[in-house]
Design a protein that fits this description.
Elements (H helix, E strand, L loop, with lengths): L1 H12 L19 E5 L6 H13 L6 E5 L10 H10 L4 E5 L7 H11 L4 E6 L2 H11 L4 E4 L5 H9 L8 H6 L1 H11 L2 H11 L12 H20 L7 H14 L6 H8 L3 H13 L3 E4 L6 H5 L3 E4 L2 H7 L6 H14 L4 E3 L6 E3 L3 E6 L14 E5 L9 E3 L8
Parallel strand pairs: 1-4, 1-5, 2-3, 3-4, 10-11, 11-12
Antiparallel strand pairs: 6-7, 8-9, 9-10
Helix pairs in contact: 3-4, 4-5, 9-15, 10-11, 10-15, 12-13
């Protein structure tokens, strides 16, 4: 136990408080049990340690932060640690990297039943494994999904430019005022295309040279380790799944032809649909449908995007088309707080069933969304709105 407190103090002392993500304020930290999920590298562990510093300071033994990939947990159980911690007056047990511990959900559930006054915070990067564990804890545990950096947060983290976040309703109601405030603080277009290439994951600042290799490493781990272990994917098909991702990186966005995709990577059609669903669960891709109500449509996506533009640039083996990066950005930034459907006949996307968006460059017209109510063009390479043509970067201010 003393070793765990020593490790905690060392990590807290090494945790900076200069920049704290707005996500901190969206979490109900008083919940008896909560779980923060998100892709590797988005800053979950840092957020947890910052919360401890804010609420308890450094050196308190009322809180215990444990990463479950510590060697300590090869010989000690969660239940054992929780018992000793609680008897010493512990109030908050933070279990990071929960997915690294076998049967974590079963033991956490037991801890919650034995020590109902002990608050528990869970976190992990294996979205597939945490989803599997939710069945045991869904009634007790409040779940949160932590995305990578928005364009607004990129400006804050990387450039020291501080801007407020806005709801989509606010952006659409008064875009000129928002754009004027941003343009006072910076030239957004100066930074936007850099964000598309390397702004989503905070770890770029620490290791820019290895940024894309690290993204590939994260992707390979999901495909080579997690899919076979957690989704029973045949290891012999892992290379084909990587080929599938590579195809998507070259071609997305496009209208989906599952049979053609299956032929390209030599898999059965139904197998491709199944694998796409797994990749969507793992937050490596976004699957869009033109009708979220229809069960039939849920079986086959109408459009496919990689999860974020940085992933697109990391995995593509040919030059990325800017149109692809623009739409990938739009889906990524909008999907965190809103429901997106593929627009199909009218526009690229329909958001929350009421707003229609068409994405393109500065010269993008309204031809495809003419006479459609609540329709907007999100245009790259402009700094200020022109009627219902809004700067594409503006939706990067949503969180």
């Amino acid at each position: 136990m003393e070793l765990l407190f020593e490790k905690q103090d060392a990590m807290l002392n090494a945790t900076g408080m200069e920049i704290v993500r707005n996500f901190m304020g969206h979490v109900n930290w008083d919940a008896p049990m909560l779980c923060i999920r998100g892709p590797r590298g988005v800053g979950k562990s840092t957020l947890l340690r910052q919360h401890i510093i804010q609420q308890y300071g450094i050196g308190s033994e009322e809180v215990l932060y444990c990463s479950l990939d510590f060697v300590y947990f090869t010989q000690h159980s969660i239940l054992e640690v929780a018992e000793k911690f609680y008897k010493r007056g512990g109030r908050l047990l933070v279990l990071d990297e929960a997915h690294k511990y076998e049967n974590w959900s079963r033991e956490v559930k037991e801890v919650a039943e034995i020590y109902p006054n002990l608050q528990i915070i869970l976190s992990g990067s294996s979205l597939l494994k945490l989803m599997d564990g939710d069945a045991d804890l869904s009634r007790r545990c409040r779940g949160y999904y932590m995305p990578g950096l928005s364009f607004r947060e990129y400006l804050q983290f990387y450039k020291g430019i501080h801007l407020p976040s806005y709801s989509l309703e606010h952006l659409l109601a008064d875009p000129k005022a928002v754009a004027a405030e941003v343009n006072k603080a910076c030239r957004p277009l100066q930074h936007f295309h850099d964000y598309l290439k390397y702004g989503y994951y905070p770890f770029y600042l620490k290791n820019p040279i290895d940024y894309y290799p690290l993204i590939e490493q994260i992707t390979n781990y999901v495909i080579d380790v997690e899919l076979p272990q957690l989704r029973k994917v045949s290891p012999s098909n892992c290379r084909k799944i990587k080929a599938l991702l590579n195809v998507l990186a070259q071609l997305v966005p496009f209208d989906v032809d599952i049979s053609k995709m299956a032929s390209m990577i030599e898999l059965q059609r139904n197998t491709v649909i199944e694998y796409l669903s797994h990749l969507d669960d793992a937050k490596l891709i976004h699957l869009l449908h033109s009708d979220l109500v229809s069960v039939k449509k849920m079986q086959k996506p109408d459009k496919i995007f990689l999860e974020n533009p940085n992933l697109l640039y990391a995995l593509a083996t040919t030059p990325v088309k800017i149109g692809t990066a623009r739409e990938c950005f739009a889906v990524n930034q909008l999907s965190y707080q809103y429901t997106i459907e593929y627009g199909k006949q009218h526009g690229d996307f329909k958001v929350d069933g009421k707003w229609i968006f068409e994405v393109g460059g500065e010269d993008k017209t309204f031809d495809q969304i003419a006479d459609q109510p609540n329709s907007y063009v999100l245009a790259d390479d402009i700094e200020s709105p022109r009627g219902h043509k809004l700067p594409l970067w503006m939706i990067g201010l949503l969180y």
